[in-house]
Design brief:
about 0% strand, 5 helices, mainly alpha
Amino acid sequence: MSFPVLAYYRSQHANQSWVAALTAILDACVLVLALSEHESQRAARLTFAMARHAAVDLTLVFNLRPRPTEADRLPASDLAQVREALRAAGWVVRDVPDAEAKLRRLREMYEPYMNALARFLLVPLPAWRASRGARDNWTGLE
């Protein structure tokens, strides 16, 4: 396995990490898989499988145990706002009860691993939604 050494890579920006990026990729995949009828279902399924595999492997390499997150990263109020944002972007969003159950099951497949890695590497997991007023590091550069 060649990628464990990359786990120690640190960005020069405090608000950027590969842990956050990998988590965001997994988050996006589960939104597609659980809540939408989007044409990218196959791509999301393959991406989810590979990204989750990397998370699990890295957790094993560092001899970490999966750890549930202390607080729900996607409470019901945030999920409602995510659904609305997807609809506003033109996505067909499923509102059936089993969609949320599927979302929860998929999240349980990777969040404990990502949380263990985040705690070990001392980086936070990303929120599902950007906080108000958050700016990208490149914003304002001329």
